[in-house]
Every structure is written in structure tokens, then in C-alpha cells.
């Protein structure tokens, strides 16, 4: 089990400091690629008969963990698992898997202002991945293109809805 197996988790978050009377703010530090892997199925035969633009199925996880001492205080990781599927050849055949891709893109974040415990989770699991997603999406789409597949677009993700959905599942 790796540190990306759970979605929308928050480890730590104790001892959040507060500045007097300032609104809670998320401060972005460095962003970086933690891991990237792609598995192209049945090469080179898979490239002979791709029918149009593959469908991309995705799952998205967000994790946050408090870092020991100093600033920035938190590492937030956006994990995207994508699967490229070719259209089924006939009604009796399932869609073929062309590739499977996983990216873990992370950023260092600090919290400033008057931060309550109730503010921490939405700041880290809703706002922070919004900063990480554009770069993660660009890396994901470039990797698919470099692997030799047609690339479409991936729409922005509503991280608030994702967070609310995961909170409902945990209850």
C-alpha cells in the first residue's frame, strides 16, 4: 500500500498558526512531479488500428499531509489515474484498453491568516488541487501524445464536489 491509496485524506493538521484578524489564506510554494508511469498495451500492434480519438477514463485522488516543522506546512498530492479506451469494434466486444497512466503531482503549501481547524480541510483538499491541476493535466496530455495516441482535452475538475462526495462516502 502506498501513500496514494486513499482519496481526500488529511494527515496531521494540528498546530495551525493564525495571524490576527486576517482571512485564511493558502500560500503556494514549490510544485513538482512525484511519479509518472504509463503502460501501453500490446505494442506495437495497438498502433495499427486505433479508431479515432480514444476515450479517457479517469479517477482522481487528493491527499494532504502535514510536514514536520517550519514552512511550508503541508504537502498536497493530486493523483490521476487515466485509462485510454478505444471504441468497441462491434456490439459484442468491449472497448480495448490502449494505455494506463498514473501521475502524482504535488505542491508545498502553507496556511496563513486566521485559520481555524474547519478551514484546513477545504483549503488543502479543495483549493490546493485547483493550483496543481493545470500542470498535472498538461503533463498527462503531453505523455499521452508522446506515447503516440491522439489527444483530446480534459475539462477542469470541481474539487469541491469531489471533496463533498468523498466526505459523504466516509460517513
From TrEMBL:
Keywords associated with the record: Chaperone, Protein transport, Translocation, Transport
Keyword hit for RNA-binding: no
GO biological process: protein tetramerization; protein transport
Gene3D superfamilies: SecB-like
InterPro entries, per the entry: SecB, SecB-like_sf
GO MF: unfolded protein binding
Family: Belongs to the SecB family.
Keyword tRNA-binding: no
Superkingdom assignment: Bacteria
Name under which the protein is recorded: Preprotein translocase subunit SecB
